[in-house]
Structure formats: C-alpha cells, structure tokens
Automatic annotation (TrEMBL):
Protein name: Transmembrane protein 236
Species this chain originates from: Chanos chanos (Milkfish)
InterPro entries in UniProt: Uncharacterised_FAM23-like_TM
Membrane-spanning parts: 9-26, 46-66, 87-107, 250-272, 292-325
Keywords of this entry: Membrane, Transmembrane, Transmembrane helix
C-alpha cells in the first residue's frame, strides 16, 4: 500500500514538472506560429522551433531539474541552508527566463518586420505567471499536510487582539522589608508574580481564541489556505507590471525590455524563504524602487497605462522602508518629546 506521503510527493513533483515544461512549450509554439506567419507559411521554421522546445525541455530536465530535485529531496544537500529555495531558483532560470526571452524576441521580430500581429497578451503570459505562482505555492505548503485539521501546524500565529496585563510591581526595598530577613525570598516572590502574570495572559489568550459561540466557524486560522493567499499577494505587483507590457503601444516599443527585465529581477525574490528577514530589503531594491521609476516614466510617455494605485504603493513602500529602518535610528527621532 502506497503511503500518503509518497502520493503527496508524486503529486507535487508532477505539478512542478508540468509548471516547468508547459509554459516553455506554449510560448515557443506561439513564437513558432509567429515566425511561420512572418515567413509566409514556412512550416519548416515552425517545426524547427517546436523541435527545439522539446529538445530544450528534455535536456534541462535530465541534466539540471532532476539532479536539483535529487539533491534537495533525497540527499538533503541543501538542508543546512534555511534562507533560500534551490528548487525555485532552478525554475526561475530554466523556465521563466526563456519564456520571458521569447516574449521579448517576438516583439523585436515584429518591429523589425514592420508587422504587428501578436502581442502575447493573454494565454502565454498568464500561463507563465500562473505556473510561477503554482511552484511558489507548492514550496510553501510542502511542509504542511494536506489532510486533517491544521491544529498544531503553527502555534499562536492567529492574528487578533491580545491582552496586555499591567500590574504594579513593588520595588526591591519593599520586597526586602516584607521578606523573611532578606534570605532571598524577594526573588522568589518576584518570580512567582511574573509567572502568574504570564500564566493568566496565556490562559486568556487560549480562552479568547477558542471561542465556541454560534459564529465559531468564522474564527478560523488555516495556514494552508493562507499560503495560497500569501503567494498570490506576493506576485500581484509583478503581474500588473507584466500586464502593462501587453498593451499594444508599450509592447511594440523599447519599453518592453526594461519592463520584462525588472519583472524577472523581481521574480528572483522567490528564491528567499517567505520568513526570511532579507525579503523586505529585496522587495524594496528589486521591486518597489525600480517599479516606481518605470511606472512614472510610463505614465509620462504613454499616459495612464498603469494604475496610479501601484505607483503610490511603490512610493509608500520605499518611503516607509527608509524611514523605519534608517531614519528612526537617528538621535532626532529618538527624543522622548516627539510623537
């Protein structure tokens, strides 16, 4: 009887391999169709590009993808590295990079031929981004089980109000006077006081979050569902940037190069684990700051092709990062008289 862990492993690996190969096949087939149209229905060019896509996927699977998966799953070669994900790095390089490259190449070919027939706006681009998100989700939920309740997966990770219990603590001199001749009992009394306070807070927290009233079904913390939500939220800004590149006037201009290059650099953030402290810095340096510059330039050149909401998001992300990380450490902002 095959165990549930083996079945889950097979499902994960099949899904990740499909996400690796399917976008490459679709994008290169679309590029082959474009080349056939530009060369007056030259079927030889079409089948050469299709054959090249099959050869590429076969080669990277045998010589790169399978060895990386073996090292990560079987030998645990990367187990000592806890702040990056080698599988997602391999996927970004082997699948996302060539797909973005062929999308840019399709624009360049059409501009050189003075033909505008395909902007790669829907299926190929959406498929590439969706598969990228799927790989991220698989790596996020891989440590979690797929069946049964989520109890015990995370402890005290439920957002909600908590009790701040303030209690007046007597001074050391008062404790010495009330102690038994200064034989160390004040320390024991203080320890008991803090222990009881911590116990009462923990009891309140557990009772508050274990409410079983008529709306108890709404009071749920599900980390597996949250992994899906967090993954899509993580990619929304990059998805919007790539969407702008699909607009006709932008797609057939030189702006497609910085857009896709910066989008790819932003996608490299997925290499870092979601709980890494490095993720905030990478988010500002590889996404918010360059996206802010590009979006402002796009609005100046093409008008409001991108929503102003994303411009404000990038601006606020950069300003708050600089303020809370750097400026709050200055002496002027550490004065007690300030707000």
């Amino acid at each position: 009887m095959v165990s549930g862990k083996i079945i889950k492993l097979i499902l994960y690996e099949l899904l990740e391999f499909a996400c690796l190969s399917v976008p490459v096949f679709v994008v290169m087939e679309r590029f082959a169709s474009l080349m056939r149209c530009l060369k007056s229905d030259n079927h030889t060019t079409y089948w050469l590009v299709v054959a090249a896509s099959i050869a590429y996927v076969t080669t990277v699977t045998l010589f790169f993808w399978v060895p990386v998966k073996y090292l990560t799953l079987k030998t645990n070669r990367f187990s000592e590295v806890i702040h990056w994900r080698p599988v997602t790095l391999a996927y970004i390089i082997l699948s996302t990079l060539p797909c973005f490259g062929f999308i840019i190449a399709s624009s360049k070919v059409q501009v050189n031929q003075d033909v505008c027939s395909d902007t790669f706006t829907e299926l190929p681009v959406s498929l590439v981004l969706f598969c990228l998100i799927c790989v991220d989700i698989v790596e996020r939920i891989r440590p979690l089980r797929l069946t049964g309740p989520a109890d015990g997966l995370r402890s005290y990770d439920v957002p909600g109000p908590t009790l701040t219990h303030l209690e007046q603590v007597s001074t050391v001199s008062v404790q010495v006077q009330s102690g038994d001749g200064g034989n160390g009992s004040p320390v024991r009394n203080g320890s008991a006081r803090f222990s009881s306070t911590h116990t009462s807070n923990a009891t309140y927290f557990n009772s508050y979050h274990s409410y079983s009233g008529p709306f108890a079904f709404l009071w749920v913390s599900e980390p597996r569902h949250q992994a899906f939500v967090d993954a899509f939220l993580f990619w929304f800004d990059m998805v919007e940037m790539v969407r702008v590149a699909g607009i006709t006037e932008v797609y057939y201009s030189g702006w497609i190069f910085p857009i896709y290059i910066l989008a790819y650099l932003s996608a490299l953030r997925v290499i870092v684990t979601p709980n890494s402290a490095l993720l905030s810095t990478l988010g500002v340096l590889s996404q918010d700051l360059p996206f802010l510059v590009v979006r402002v330039c796009l609005i100046v050149v093409f008008g409001y092709v991108t929503p102003v909401l994303y411009v404000l998001k990038n601006l606020l992300a950069c300003l708050t990062f600089v303020y809370f990380v750097f400026m709050t450490k200055l002496r002027f902002f550490n004065r007690g008289s300030l707000f």
